[in-house]
Each structure stands twice: as C-alpha cells, then as structure tokens.
Amino acid sequence: MLVSLTGTFLVWKQQYLWLVIPQARVEFIPTAESLSIIAEAIDRQFDGNEILSVQFASHELPLTLLTLSDERFAYLDTQGSIVDQWQGNGRFEEWVYDLHHRLLLGDTGLNMVGAAAMIMVLLALFGMIAFWPFRKGFRLGLLLRSPGRAHLLLAHRNLGIVVLLPFLLTLVTGIVLVYPAQTEGWLLDDMRRTEQYSNTMTEHLDDISGGGSGDWLPAMQRAVAVFPDATIRSAQVPGSFSGYRIIGLQQNGEWSRQSLSRVYIDSEQGYMDIRMDALRYPLIERIYNTVVPLHTGKLNSFVYKLWLTMVGLGIFALSTMGLTGFVKKYL
Known about the structure:
- The chain is of the alpha+beta class.
- The two termini are about 20 Å apart.
- It is built from 14 helices and 8 strands.
C-alpha cells in the first residue's frame, strides 16, 4: 500500500516541481549553446572532483539536477544559478522517493522492498490460480456490494485479475531497479566483454582535436554532430579520476532519458575517444534499458502516466481489500 501510493506520486514528480519551483515554469530549449552556459556556470561554482553527475534542464523541466559527493544535490536554473541545495532526502519529493525505494531505512529498506516485490510476484501468480475456479464471479464486478468479508474477497479477486499484468510489470521492473548491478551482471556482463561489443564504441568518431575543442560548447556541438537530432541530457565533468567530458544524449527512438548514448571527449586535448550508440546495443541490452522508463513513466507520454496512476491506485485498492479481508477473518 505504501509503495503503490508513493510510486503514484513520483509518476507526477515533474508536475509537482512545476508547482513548487517558479524556475521550473520558464520556457527553455536545450541546445548545445544554452546547455554550455549551465555547464560553464557549474565549473565556476563547484570543484570538478565533487561533481558526480549533471542532469541537464530540458524543455519539459528546465531545472538542472547536480549530484555531488556526500549525498548532496542542487537544482540550477537555466543560467546555472543555484535554486536550491539539499542533502540526502532533504526535499519533500526526495523524501517520498526514499520512502518508496528504501522505506527511509537505507540499504536495509532497499532489500526489504526488493524481497517484498519478489514475494508479491508469487502472490500475484498464486492469485491468478486461485481466481480460476471462481471466474464466473467476475461478472459481479469490481465494486464492493457490502463491507462483508465475502464481498471483500470477491472484489479483491476480480480487481486482482484486472491489474495482474500491469502489476507484474511494475513488480519485475522494480526488482531490477532494486538490484541493477546483479541484473546487469547476469544479463549483460559476458556480452559486454566481447571484442565485437567494444569495437562499436570506436566507430563514427570525429577527428577534431586541439584549439579548445574540448571546452564545453565545442564538445557539446560535436556530440550533437555525431548523434544528429539527439538531445543532450547529461554530463560528467573532468576531474582527477577522469579527464573526459562525458556527454550523454537521447536519440530519437530511445525510450530512456538516461543518456545512454554517450561521447567521451578529452577536456584538454579535445580528441573524441569513445562514442556509445544506444540504438546499436544488442537486443537484450535495449530491452533492459526500457526498465526505467516503463517503471517510472518517463516516456514523455501523458497517457502512460495516467495509466500508471490508475494501476498504482488499483494496486492500493487491491492491497487494502486484501488486508481488510485478512483482518476480518480473525475478528
């Protein structure tokens, strides 16, 4: 019940930020020129070694999210000025996310959520089996006819069949998000070690270098040039660990907004060393990359967000009726 409600809220996190942050309601077009202004402002205000990642402002949400060391975060406006800074779950929407993902209990809560989701997969499948002998009762509908336990169980059983497939989708994708390293290791590690896989990352590089070509603006322009019609979504700044500007993009045809297409450009000498094309990943990896947008609703589709909302509320109702029916058995 808790996870379904918090997850439903998080589907609309962007709309919540529109309401509470005025800078989230301005017009913004994410071009190499406009995003380089933000990146240069970040360089002036923060040390490169404390910046873990930059998720750039978009047309839909013109706020840049800066992830810093020691679980610190910041929102920046379209000029790179700091709108807000916080640590951990210090903002309401981040507190809700922490509650949804970790029950506010850190890794212990994360494992509890993952274990609960795996158990729920089994319960959903057993529920489908339990429904079959009583399938003729489906015609009686989903609404409670009375608060009695028999009617609770009937409505619970019928609603469970309606939300079964989307419920399994949210459960399986949620399990993957709880255990991403384990899932990637199982599905993708062997494939990623092949020479064929790595060779694709050195194709279609440009041959530009020197003369400031590794600065933010030319680096972003070059990233868009080797990925025509793509939108810049993120960056990792050069520091003591790596001298690259790693620029992440979303191409037309990519579901995920996680910047899975990337270019690595040396910040000092300017050469482009790696180009990762998410549309050319093997099929199993492209399927894996749909997990985040399917679970979170980040598909730039109002209809899908609405569908996920109805699923979340349906799961909440299903859980409420199941719990109530269980308690009534012992009263």
